[in-house]
Design brief:
By secondary structure, the protein is an alpha+beta fold. It has helices at residues 30-38, 41-52, 60-67, 69-78, 123-139; strands spanning 81-83, 95-104, 107-117. A three-stranded antiparallel beta sheet has the order 1-2-3, sandwiched between helices.
């Protein structure tokens, strides 16, 4: 996934200042998993095949989860993804993230991602605290 816009630079509460153009592995980031879940089955299969061919080693547990349609259906049912202890960042394991889909006219156009300090908050607390704000923000589209 490619960062198109980021608020990291306007916050003092960030470990890394990610700019537009930063790239994260599709299968292991929250925004990539949202994208896969809201893609068509054919597009999802093509993206997974492409990720398999990349040089990045994919966590086998995540890869197996993403293979079936159950993964996509479950994410669409709850409407968000949590990625804990993000590995592919400048500070591996120190942040976690929540992603929600952004749709326009019923079509997925982006993913909105909120990053938080993994040591400061459990995922359940972050979901309770931040998901309502993410849901409101995505509705503006």
């Amino acid at each position: 996934m490619v960062v198109r816009d980021s608020t990291h630079s306007i916050s003092s509460m960030t470990l890394t200042n990610y700019q537009a153009g930063a790239v994260f592995p599709l299968l292991e980031c929250a925004s990539g998993q949202i994208w896969l879940a809201y893609s068509s089955q054919g597009e999802r299969e093509a993206l997974i095949r492409g990720a398999q061919q990349s040089e990045i080693k994919i966590d086998p547990l995540i890869f197996n989860q993403l293979q079936g349609d159950d993964f996509a259906a479950q994410i669409r049912k709850v409407g968000y993804v949590v990625a804990s202890n993000n590995r592919f960042t400048d500070t591996p394991g120190r942040t976690s993230s929540i992603a929600v889909p952004v749709c326009k006219d019923g079509k997925l156009v982006a993913a909105l991602v909120l990053v938080y300090f993994a040591v400061a908050m459990k995922a359940a607390t972050a979901i309770e605290k931040f998901l309502p704000t993410c849901d409101k923000a995505q509705m503006r589209w």
